[in-house]
Amino acid sequence: MIARLRxxxxxxxxxxxxxxxxxxxxxxFFVLVLSSSGTSxxxxxxxxxxxxxxxxxxxxxxxxxxxFVGMVxxxxxxxxxxxxxxxxxxGMLVALSLVRELGPVVSALLFASRAGxxxxxxxxxMKATEQLTAMDMMAVxxxxxxxxxxxxxxxxxxPLLAAIFSAMGVxxxxxxxxxxxxVDAGAFWSQMQAAVDVRYDVLNGVxxxxxxxxxxxxxxxxxxxxxxxxxxxxxxxxxRTVVSSALxxxxxxxxxxxxxxxxDD
Amino acid sequence: xxxxxxxxxxxxxxxVGFAALLILALKVGNIGGEGQRDAYKVEARFDxxxxxxxxxxxxxxxxxxxxxxxxxxxxxxxQASVTLALDKRFPFPKDTTASILTSGLLGEVYIGLxxxxxxxxxxxxxxIAITQSAVVLERLIGQFLFSKAQEEPAKEPAKEPAKxxxxx
Lengths: 265, 168
Hints:
The complex is a heterodimer. By secondary structure, chain A is mainly α. Chain A contains ten helices and no strands. Chain A is 88% helix and 0% strand. Chain B folds into two domains: 31 residues; 103 residues, no CATH class. Chain B is built from two helices and eight strands; from the N terminus they run αββββββββα. In chain B, a hairpin with a 2-residue loop joins strand 2 and strand 3.
């Protein structure tokens, strides 16, 4: 009995220490990425290439999902607002929920599963096939050559993708609200413009998406770099990237929203 | 060859991203319409501002002409001091009335301006002298009950004897 209890406590302690250790090494990794990103900014070509892979290739999924999310918001919002005779507020509802929450969060989730997992798999495979070690041998820092460009490309792409998501969502809400259902277009836009504040809503959304971009990219590159150099290890690392990115995004969203709402009033 | 196509795509992507941001700022957020640039500030003191918030609209004849910029409690006069930023395009006479109104039953609280007949116009830093406070529902109900209660004693002596015999 006592032995079993001891075993369980030992397991708990082991898990805790392991988690703490991973967090510490992730922080050190983050600092290392930042300190070695100077050289990668001198070679913008690398970052541009990575923006192509993370940003441009995520464009379609982000734009289409944004459109659909906006349309669904329009339909659902209309259904509820109709009861209170406030269907003109549908523009406000769609725009505020997209710009404040859904734009940054959903696009970050999509970005984590579309681009983050790709980054992890790529770096993990590079490690498994000993390309990173080879670079090190040639005195090419894999941090500056491989990790930092991917990190910065993600951080740059993320706010742009979130903005595209929100804009497409507003357009989707417009399609459903005004074109399909027939809410007055003037009221749709004017209520939206009266409610959405550039500094408090749009800018806060951009800040959120930048923070999410940093979080997702740190997790993705770290998991790739940290992956056991086996096929199994790489697949596990990819899964971990998606899971922990999603959890981190949602937790960070709560914290950021709490701060931003307090600052608002 | 491949490098330039990647560059083109990245350029297009960044352009589209910034265009989306611009749309959000201009079309959705309506940046810089009123307030910041060409505004003059006017102060108004209210006994009670109710649920007024900073950035609430200031309307004249239903049209937004400015925003509430700042508000604080004036501890010398025990009143609320509200600073309004009004658009320079809309000058108002000196004897304009400011009142705190609510759009609809549950709608947003805003400040309504009713222009007076003075020839002089409000300047930056002026104060609106005539103000009307927000209507507080509890007070309104309280006043109503109070006036009812005052009416009652006059009727009650007449009513009570009439009822009392009926019970017995």
